[in-house]
Design brief:
Helices cover about 5% and strands about 55% of the residues. The chain is mainly beta and about 300 residues long. It has 2 domains: about 1-75, no CATH class; about 100-310. Strands 4-5-6-8-9-11-13-14 form an 8-stranded antiparallel β-barrel. Strand 12 and strand 13 (about 275-285) form a beta hairpin. The chain is elongated, with a radius of gyration of 38 Å.
Length: about 300
């Protein structure tokens, strides 16, 4: 028994299975698996039915085997975004890392303005309001899964927003019995091409995620009209325009608008290599829309994206 224990400690599994007496075994082939020979061959008596020739199970081979077993046991988590698209062990499936797709988004813009309107050097009125507008945008999106839990995201969107502000003017007497009542109006129609770059992280091993992006909006088209029009008396025309409206110079817009966003969403597998991602997003205003005065926007949106894997 002591001899057997010493052989095991010395990584030597050379021993004899059978009934004694049997001759001692010579060193055999080394490897992970034992090499068996039938008794009664090579000079061995038939009373020795089987011999095992030096398993030679080296520590390096053992570590390699354990590592392979761990990889196989972790098969369900070592996949991009964690979807189990391998339907059978007989049908091995490669998992893509790069996905492309399309998205659409509905956004509630919470506009805060404090825009002064000048008539030559005098301030006629001030658009000091809070107003919300609902707008839509759409575009292309992509995700690259750098690890099973972290994805780098990018999207290119067309964003269109409208705003209509009203501000009552000061009533002016035309005569002893009649007051001139007017209203100031600002109408804007803006379009941006926006590049969003960011990342998202899967939460608690689920398909839910939290993400952040930085959006760079390039002003592609704009239309802003600011005018004053007569409410009463009916038929009154301003002297200098012979009309019931006077137009004013519009504020100058910034050509680049940067907005950081945070998001919370969930990835839903549709079929192999396809998934759907609904998410809610909040855009935080860090800069003004115009170069002077105040015009900022909080953005609350619901987004829906669909992705397909293309690169494995």
């Amino acid at each position: 028994m002591k001899k057997i224990i010493n052989n095991i400690e010395n990584n030597n599994f050379e021993f004899l299975l059978g009934n004694p007496p049997c001759p001692p075994l010579k060193k055999g082939v080394s490897g992970v698996f034992a090499h068996f020979e039938k008794g009664g061959q090579g000079g061995f008596p038939s009373s020795c039915p089987t011999k095992v020739v030096n398993m030679g199970f080296h520590s390096s081979s053992f570590i390699c085997l354990i590592f392979c077993m761990l990889i196989l046991s972790c098969n369900t988590i070592l996949k991009s975004q964690g979807f189990d698209w391998q339907y059978s062990s007989r049908m091995p499936t490669a998992y893509p890392n790069l996905f492309i797709g399309a998205n659409t988004q509905i956004t509630n813009f919470q506009n805060t303005t404090a825009i002064n309107l000048f008539d030559n050097v005098c301030i006629c009125t001030k658009f000091d309001t809070h107003q919300s507008t609902v707008n839509y945008n759409y575009g292309f999106a992509s995700e690259y899964w750098a690890s099973p839990y972290i994805a780098l995201t990018a999207s290119l969107n067309y964003t269109h927003s409208k705003l209509n502000l009203q501000q009552m003017g000061e009533a002016l007497p035309l005569n002893d019995t009649t007051l001139l009542k007017t209203e100031f109006v600002m109408q804007s129609d803006l379009s941006y091409i926006t590049l969003n770059l960011g990342a998202k992280y899967r939460l608690f091993g689920t398909h839910a995620h939290i993400g952040t992006t930085l959006g760079f909006g390039i002003l592609s088209s704009n239309s802003i009209r600011i005018f004053e029009h007569v409410l009463s008396p009916a038929g009154y025309h301003f002297r200098n325009t012979n009309s019931d409206s006077i137009f004013y110079k519009s504020p100058e817009l910034k050509n680049l608008y940067i907005v950081p966003r945070i998001s919370l969403g969930y990835d839903i597998s549709i079929i192999e290599n396809w998934y759907l991602t609904p998410s809610v997003n909040v855009g935080i205003p860090i800069m003004q829309v115009i170069k002077t005065d105040t015009w900022n926007q909080w953005q609350y949106s619901f987004s829906l994206s669909i992705f397909r894997g293309i690169i494995y």
